[in-house]
Design a protein that fits this description.
The protein is α/β, with parallel strands linked by helices. Helix content is 34%, strand content 20%. The longest helix is centred in the C-terminal third of the chain and has 15 residues.
Length: 177
């Protein structure tokens, strides 16, 4: 096997990306502290052509060198908006007809592998702070909660890793590609 060179991968240009069809998914970051996590989420959203990222509360916004270090330009390709609170972002998503899921461990959560997406529905996923998770008032506003089953000694994973797993699941369930 020979590794492909970048030129052989036929990636979209920035202009082609912006005008291309997107995965009908909005990623919401609720008070994510680490700019490296924010950048990593942008890069993953670029890889899956996610519709947009909503940055809320203390979550840093581009442009910023620490975001760019891990986003590597994903912050330029993926549309984003800032909201003072994730609760306001969830309300705006509901107003636009999105089904909104918090990614959180709660009573009655849906295990990610059991998620069934209704065709033609636009979705949003809310990821929380690295220590406290998604705020309870935001969980209360969401339509449902998704949980990634874990079998080790820790009760959580890094928010950017979690985002990668969840975005992959939404991407593989969609037929937009």
């Amino acid at each position: 096997m020979r590794k492909l060179r970048t030129i052989e991968m036929q990636r979209l240009s920035l202009e082609e990306f912006k005008s291309s069809e997107k995965l009908p998914l909005v990623v919401v970051l609720d008070d994510v502290r680490s700019m490296y996590n924010v950048g990593s989420v942008f890069r993953t959203c670029d890889a899956f052509r996610v519709e947009a990222v909503y940055l809320c509360g203390i979550t840093a916004c581009p442009p910023h060198p620490e975001i760019h270090k891990t986003a590597l330009g994903g912050e330029d390709s993926v549309a984003w908006k800032y909201f003072p609170t994730a609760k306001e972002a969830v309300q705006a998503l509901h107003d636009d007809g999105y089904m909104v899921y918090a990614i959180e461990q709660v009573e009655g959560s849906i295990h990610l592998q059991d998620l069934t997406l209704e065709p033609g529905t636009r979705h949003a996923v809310v990821f929380g702070n690295e220590v406290k998770g998604v705020h309870q008032d935001v969980v209360d506003c969401c339509d449902a909660c998704l949980e990634i089953p874990q079998h080790g000694t820790k009760h959580s994973m890094n928010v950017s890793v979690t985002a990668g797993i969840v975005i992959w699941e939404f991407g593989k369930n969609e037929t937009w590609k």
